Amino acid sequence: MTYAFAFDASACSGCKACQIACKDKNNLPTDVLWRRVFEVSGGSWTNIAAEDASPGVWQTDVFAYNLSIACNHCVHPKCAGVCPTDAYIVRPDGIVYIDESKCMGCGYCAWACPYAVPQYNPDLRQMSKCNFCFDNLDAGLPPACVAACPMRVLDFVVLTDNEGPITRNTSAPAHLALWNTPASEHPFPLPAFSRTQPHLAIKPHAGMVNGLAKAISNREETQTQRTRSSQRKIFENLDEAPLVAFTLLTQMSAGMAVASLFFQPFDTASPVRAGSSTFNLLMIGLLLGLGGLISFLHLGAKKNAWRALMHLKKSWLSREILMAGLFGASWLVSFVEHWFLNTDCWLLVTAPLGIGLVYSMTRVYRLRAAQNWDSWRTDAAFFLSAASLGLTGVAFGTGMAPVAIPLLAALAAEAGLLLTGPLRFEETVNRLRLGLILAAMAAALIPLFAPNQAAGWFMLPIFLLVAAQEILGRWMFYEMRQPTL
Fold it and tell me: Architecture of domain 241-480 in CATH?
């Protein structure tokens, strides 16, 4: 037995009683909506001129309909798959809910859900979502939203077989079962790329299938706290600032570990040693530790952070945290070896772990629900950031001249990535970042021709230019994600 919601779009009046009933039953704070009613409209008026040159007549194809949607309790719930703490519970009857004793409030499930269902509850400092009112169902009562619908267009169904026809608990006509329908055929505004097979049945409104362009008319009303802030102008939203800092700091740390293998003085007394300076090793650990601290402060329910490795089987976020831990442990071994033995053999292990950490970070962001992120450009941007920041960091311990050529190559690649990518933001921001890249490239050329004493003066300006453009680029990256609903 499996539960699914059923909605008759052809008769919904848009009163939003279901939305209010859900909010009331679950005592949800402002900007948290487990059920949302979308108002969709489209069409226009067209003047059809008559043959006798008279004013003609006006014809219209204007339409409007409503779509009430909460969590769809999907056959393949992506939210449950990506949760690092394994806080999502899938009941035998298909209901998906969050175990509040496990959630650490990272918000990753909200990124992965194609329907933008999980929402951060600032009162609980955890993620929250529709639970199908399973307490009502267990007591023989309907969900609060279903009970509140005055038009009786919102209902729930009981499925005995996902492949068979739905068995309704009313005598209303059968609806279109979306879990058996390709996402490309789901009505607007449901995303056409979802593979989760939502447990939602819809009786279509005529406007859903007329082939005309459609738009959500009440976008501001249906936006939640996180989706509203994510659509502000660039730099007006600070929600992602900790993630900007975490990703850049850890990528710089990993980049420095790799760069230390190739651009530190080689010790002829130890053929297997890739020499490294104490300063660089300290910086690798400091950057990694600072990034980890910032990511910890970003969590809503910090008491559950210890559970972050509980879902290594499916969650790339769990794997990223594991790689960060392994990289940190390997760095500690490298530092102890360097300090007490004056050798750096273990750096040959630390550097590959740094590459693995950056790779796992790219997989965290390659989400189907974030289509602007689900591209090879994400991989390229993260690895180029690690290279640029890592090379400039290592330059403080070795000088700029040895790393100037690879740094120029990394910056040129970043400029090419910027110029060939879609311009999704203000041109002034793109021009500013490109200007910073070109300025850093010009400054990196100077140490190749300047005396060694003078070349040292250019390391800090080069680093500041590189860091500034990376911060801009990463912030733009987070602004790139647009919620699907």
Answer: Up-down Bundle (1.20)
DSSP string, 395-418: HHHH-SGGGHHHHHHHHHHHHHHH
First and final C-alpha spacing in the chain: 29
Residue 159 CB neighbour total at 10 angstroms: 20
Average pLDDT, 10 consecutive residues per value, the chain (485 residues): 93 95 94 94 81 69 94 95 96 94 94 93 94 94 96 92 49 73 93 94 92 90 62 55 95 95 59 61 95 92 94 96 97 92 88 97 95 93 96 83 88 92 68 92 82 64 94 89 77
Instruction: Determine contact, residues 56/50, Cβ cutoff 8 Å.
Output: yes
The answer to whether 331 and 341 are in contact (CB under 8 A) is no
Query: Residue 327: CB partners within 8 Å, gap ≥ 6?
Result: 253, 254, 257, 288, 350, 353, 354, 356, 357
* Residue 53: partners with Cβ closer than 8 Å, 6 or more residues away: none
The DSSP secondary-structure symbol of 215 reads E
Give the residue among 252, 253, 246 at the shortest CA–CA distance from 350: 253
Cβ-based neighbours of 48, under 8 Å, separated by 6 or more? 56, 57, 58, 59
- Identify which of 131, 483, 86, 42 has the alpha carbon closest to the alpha carbon of residue 311: 86
CA dist list (Å): 436 to 85, 410, 443, 467: 40, 14, 10, 9
The rounded distance, in Å, linking the Cα atoms of 252 and 233 is 27
Nearest-5° angle of CA 375, CA 380, CA 381? 95
What are 177's strand-pairing partners? 201
Up-side HSE of residue 183: CA atoms within 13 Å toward CB? 15
Cα separation, 288 vs 286, in Å, equals: 6
Q: Where are the alpha helices (DSSP H) in 30-183?
A: 78-82, 108-112, 134-138, 144-148
pTM of structure: 0.88
Q: Which residue ranges make up each domain of the chain?
A: 2-44+58-229, 241-480
- Domain 2-44+58-229: give its CATH code: 3.30.70.20
Determine the Cα–Cα distance for residues 326 and 356; give it in Å rounded to an integer.
Answer: 10
Q: Which residue, chain included where needed, has tokens 């089987």?
A: 313
| DSSP 8-class letter at 211 | -
The helix/strand/coil state of 79 is: helix
Q: Is the Cβ–Cβ distance between 36 and 58 less than 8 Å?
A: no
The DSSP call for residue 311 is T
